Amino acid sequence: MPVEILEDGRKRIRAPLSDDDVQQLEAGDVVLVSGVIYAARDAAHKRLLEMLDAGEELPFDPAGQIVYYVGPTPERPGNVIGSAGPTTASRMDRYTPRMLELGLKGIIGKGGRGPAVRDELKERTAVYMAALGGGGALAALQIRSQEVIAFVELGPEAIREMEVEDLPVWVVNDCQGRDFYTQAVAPWRRDDLLPEEFRLGAGG
Amino acid sequence: MGEVREVDAAEITRVVRDLCMQINYTVPQDMVDAVKRAREKEESPVGRQILDLLIRNQELAAEGEYPYCQDTGSTVVFIDVGQDVHVTGTDLEDAIDEGVRQGYKDAYLRASIVGDPVFERKNTGDNTPAFIHTRIVPGDQIRIQVDAKGGGSENKGRHAMLKPSDGIEGVESFVLRVVAEAGPDACPPGIIGVGVGGNFEFCAMLAKRSLMRKVGQPNPDPRIAELEADLFEKCNALGIGPQSLGGTQTVLAVHVEMMATHIASLPVAVNIECHAHRTGTKVI
């Protein structure tokens, strides 16, 4: 089952994901990602889009899949991987619409996405999730295997097929256009302590 | 004038290597304490959960298998060379880069530097070159401070040449704007380094150097310390919180450094350090 709802309200997902699966994921949900995901960041995305422009076949089919924006540290002998937390997602904003066109359903990174990507997630029924930024050591423990499948010369930026088990993430942008960062911060803003330009006029 | 003391460049290489290897696994105690303080003060339950995870991440990294963060940074090296020191052997900067090369390889750290910014962007493979800041100072010692600076938070830094009439309110507004716009991307909670004054390039340097202070140590000038305290309160009032999931602890500290400036100028620079604050110092 691609989306499993746990007793404590968290959700466990496993690619491939359908539109119906994605629709069950809402901004603010805590999600445990299991199964196969694809690691790719800046340089790999640039190459993927160049391959698409050249009409070449990609090293993996994004349809229904989850991409993790990560460039791990080299693994120590005996370990599956090194430290492997998420990188800033907005740097991939320029590449994301093409990936979504190909049917990519889930993205894991950290930080906010631009309005164009948020619209596209809604349009294409896909979801953006954030992992613990800077929590690279903890993330490593959830990764069961990794294999470089393309662009080995990019080193940490090579594309990797990874198997993960219960990698915890938060749904930030769901397929209904919601943005969890905006929702989460507003109640904590202290308008009374801030210059006018920073006041939200909500909560606090 | 004191006698000239000879220091073998190999000693500098060894110190830089050891610092690179150490700081990427063991977060300095002042940072550990700052995260614990934030954990005690955080009012948001989700924020407290995040800070607990960061503390676990610190503990796990300190065991020595996994670096604290996969972005093991650009290597920023502050080196203060006593004017009575004569470095022998290889060139100073080569000695430092060799230390980075060895440290990043031996400690399984990520090579995160590309050789040029816009043409090939080919990874240099060993995290060199380091970003080296050298000062000649009195004495016969060499002080080396290494900082592994994460790219995500670095990208959120900003620099502005304000008008003198913008005054301290203008500085505050700029700092808050930078922190607000950085939001989740800079991996809050972190340290906000602010440079005010100097000229275009000195201002950025002030911001960077302010990050090298012990976390939360106030500026010795009480007027600047007051500005730091005020900015600290206001940054936290933004409500961004740990990982920008809402909360009262958006920043762990605000450090401000100032210097003289031109009659026409009010430069201000903000350099953000994420919670992966990895720095260490050694004196030769």
Instruction: Please count the helical segments of chain A.
Output: 6
Number of strands of chain B: 10
Spans where pLDDT lies below 50 across 5 or more residues of chain A: none
- Number of self-contained structural domains of chain A: 1
Distance between the termini of chain A: 41 Å
Walk me through the structure:
The complex is a heterodimer of chains A (204) and B (284). Chain A is α/β, with parallel strands linked by helices and 204 residues long. Chain A has six helices and eight strands. Chain A has one domain: fumarase, CATH 3.20.130.10. In chain A, strands 3-4-5-6-8 form a five-stranded mixed β-barrel. Chain A starts with a strand and ends in a 19-residue tail after the last helix. Chain B has two domains: 5-24 and 67-149, Dihydrodipicolinate Reductase, domain 2; 152-276, no CATH class. Chain B is built from eight helices and ten strands. Chain B has a four-stranded mixed sheet with strand order 4-2-5-10. Chain B has a four-stranded mixed sheet with strand order 6-9-7-8. A two-stranded parallel ribbon of chain B has the order 1-3. In chain B, helix 2 runs antiparallel to helix 3 (45-62) and helix 6 crosses helix 8 (222-237). The relative contact order of chain B is 0.20. The interface between A and B is large, with 50 and 57 residues.
